Amino acid sequence: MNNAGEMAMDFGLRGKRALVCASSKGLGRGCAEALAGEGVSLVLNARGAEALEATAAEIRDRFGVPVETVAADITTEAGRAEVLAVAGEVDILVTNAGGPPPGTWTDWDRDDFIAALDANMLTPVALIQALVPGMMARGWGRVINITSRAVKAPLAALGLSNSARAGLTGFVAGTARQVAHSGVTINNLLPGSHDTDRIRTMDARNAELKGISIDTQKAQRLATNPVGRDGTPEEFGAACAFLCSQQAAFIVGQNILADGGEVNATI
Ligand code: NAP
């Protein structure tokens, strides 16, 4: 029973095992906590060991689920190998990594594009290739890729993100429909602005470029959001947990916006 005295929805995930990449902070952490709340045991990853261990300890204390950690850069082949060795057979994969740096379309060279493709397209592709065959063999699996609203509506300063995430979206669209018959769903979850370190860094950069205060920059940004605030990692995590649920088994190859309605589009 929840606080309102109503039956809470059971997502049927108790005892499943999830790898949540880039999850010591922000949206990845939100997904990890929501899955832990559903009784899912976790493998968490981030580069910085200190924040990673602190997050893992808090999740163990709060939710009582087993949590393993791998401090590694998920965007490198060596880092992925370390993570995959610990992850073993997981039922749920949440792909995530830091977003590419902002800039101007004339500035990016081949190396910048390759780095963005490595981090935000080829890393999730490699993780899907490594883990989905096992999920298919076992007849059940869920993959959620944290992408961006930039897939639906480009962000001018984030051309590297617009490009790399569009590539991943195309791969997922084709692949999700080839694996769904085995009980494995692959979907993308598209964050709009959420209250994390990433958005705070972007607000600071834009405030400096415009010569205004960070508070004014944030207020200007929020004025364009129908809900009038940033999303929270908890809300984002709840959407992720639902997409992982038994109830979401018929949602395949979709791109789900969590943005407070900020992308102004009919569909
Ligand atoms: P965040 O608050 O900065 O958190 C990033 C997390 O990822 C941290 O735990 C970080 O830990 C880890 N991480 C970063 N790079 C990594 C790497 N190479 N290998 C392993 N772990 C790594 O960011 P966020 O806001 O949650 O954003 C998550 C993703 O969503 C990003 O790709 C971002 O571009 C995208 N996004 C965010 C928003 C938003 O408003 N927040 C909107 C649209 C899209 P370490 O630094 O210790 O590795």
Provide a brief overview of the structure.
The protein has 267 residues and is of the alpha/beta class.
Can you write the helix and strand succession as a string? EHEHEHEHEHEHHHE
Compounds present? NADP nicotinamide-adenine-dinucleotide phosphate
What proportion of the residues form beta strands (DSSP E)? 5-15%
Order of adjacent strands in the largest pleated sheet: 3-2-1-4-5-6-7
Distance between the termini: 35 Å
Helix content: 40-55%
Major sheet characteristics: 7 strands, parallel
Shape designation: globular
Find the count of extended strands (DSSP E, 2+ residues): 7
Low-confidence stretches: none
Class inferred from helices and paired strands: alpha/beta
Question: What would your notes on this structure say?
Answer:
With 267 residues, the protein is α/β, with parallel strands linked by helices. A 7-stranded parallel sheet has the order 3-2-1-4-5-6-7, sandwiched between helices. It is built from 8 helices and 7 strands, in the order E-H-E-H-E-H-E-H-E-H-E-H-H-H-E. It starts with 16 loop residues before the first strand and ends in a 9-residue tail after the last strand. Helix 1 packs across helix 8 (233-244), helix 4 (110-138) runs parallel beside helix 5 and helix 6 packs across helix 7 (214-222). The chain is 46% helix and 14% strand. Bound molecules: NADP nicotinamide-adenine-dinucleotide phosphate.
